[in-house]
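Shall we go through a protein fold together, starting from nothing but its sequence? Please make up or recall a protein chain and show it to me in full. Go ahead whenever you are ready, and we will take it from there.
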Amino acid sequence: MIGLKYRWMACGLFLWGYCGSILPAQSVEIGSGETAYAEWIRQLDSTSWLRREQAWQNLRLEAGRIRENLELAEFLEAVRDGLADPKISFEVQERLLFLEREIFAEEKGGKRTNFKVQNQLNERGESEKEFGKGGMESLPCWKMLFSDVPVERNFAEREVNKLLRQGVEPYHVMTILRNLLVKEDMSEDDRERMWKLEHQARLCWIKETAKLPKLKTGFSTKEIQESVDCLATANLPEDRLVPWMELEERCRVEFTALPREDMLGGDGFSFLNFGKKENGEIYGLKIWKTVQYLEDALIDESVSETALEAIREKLESKEMTPAGTILLKRLEFLTKPCLVAEYWREGEMKGVQFLRIGVPQNCGVGISYFDVLGEETVHCQGGANLAQGDYPLDVAVPHPNQPEAFFRLTALRTPAEKLLYPTIMADEDSALWREVTLKTMDWLEKELFEKSRPLSMSEIQLLGHLEMQEVSARVGEWFSTEEKWKQIAWEEDQNKNNPVGKQTNCAYLCELLFRKGTKEAIPGLLKIAEQDIFWVQTRSRERIAYWAILGISQNEPWEGMETWLLSQLGNGKELQEVLVEEDDSPMVRTMLPANGVKRGEAEKGSGKKNGRATVGATAAAILLKKQGMVLDGIREIPIRPMNRQGGIFYGFENDEAAECVCGKLRRAYAVLKGK
């Protein structure tokens, strides 16, 4: 009894505390100004969960109202005060930063939604007009990059990114950031933030040089020579330069990288904070800036030959320190044409090989030697995997030994292409996979329809390892045009007068769509189904286009699907017809279905249909499942089209069941249509 008494007391205390925690938050009238905002921010750290959530919802609603009415000053001030409070918890800071990002949200066109924010900043001398014209070094915005207030830092970073998106003098922006980055009195976190901004600005400039390779960036022959001499005498510890050591020698032996790994040694960030000082400067920062300057000179075609000549003369003189040799050799290496061999499997890039043109290299499993680089192809003299011959660039190439994998060969001819490539690798696999698919399909269509050659089996297998939405759309387009599907139907060694050969490649493509296809292929499949394309084997023939349509319909709805399925309810065509002959031996007959169709009867479309998988029965089963109805009178029939990966299809048990099921479905859909 005593224990029970204490339990009731404990429950009472718990309920009392719980009821106290769910008391309604103090009501503060929306729009009452900075006092209300400060109160809500204070309540974000309340011990009451309900008060915290109510305060957060109030702030979110107010932020939305402010974005519509552009009444920002007091709300922004309250958020900034909250972020500047040293006692603020990490969770509250995260929430306020989220609000700040929402307030400063930008429209697609690049115009700021909240003009009052810009007006406030204009009062500090940071107008967009002033920011985009020259004299940028003196603007207070650059100082805000190092502000203790997160809102100001975030705003300044956004303004830099905005400049880069608008293409406002990216080299000038990069130079300012580079000068800020090498300041000595900077924390490690600030330096890393500056490095990321500078790297982003540099990539924008490199991309711009691809369009206008000869830019007026202020390089001079004297400064280039002084920079080369500076690197030649570099006295950095070699462990800081491990990623850059003997790059050319690494290309003579195995040189394989994992995806997302920068094969060119990155941006030298490892020695940015090298503490040794020389003439009052941090030595690592000085060397980093010099390397960046010379890389830029090699990228700019107006001075690239001058810079390369100076680097080669210094290397030939052998008047360098060990660190200087590593740095100068890497710069020369950037100017030599290279090839990247990407290894793809299951929609992911699994590895990358970095190959020098004209240099036999060990790829771990053998020697690969690519000797001639053309505009659209590269010639392989001998490979660990690839046979001798020409291979297209930037498209998927079937792996000869692994049917589930493929290569992609990409040429890197210039320093700019080499420095940009790691940013391409940094993209999501799905985006890269789609890009590979688009380029491969474009190349394949050019090969097939401009050169009038047939589709090979290795290419059909390759399609199954690309992004299937795009593949389905392209194959559906081929099937929609009679000229195109007849062109791809022939195998390379097939006699065009052979009627079986006409069907082979179309059947393989339909089988691929049956296994992996998406609704984008349906329009073309409907047209090819009208041709009654068969896959003919010794003892059976299969209507593979119908397999593909019904297979996709079971997995993915498509526009007009129900109408088409209703139209097929009376279609008694068998999905798989097993053929028998009069002179079959008893042993062969025991291996064939009892209701097999004689070869002559199959041509006439006669024979026993009940208990066999048909187009109409499978269409009925799909509609019944869609409406949540019982599959009475229908039986499941697992079949493997073309003796590959199979699926579940359906047949009617008898003629009465077929008539009953079809009638029930037609009446049900007539009622739905009437509604």
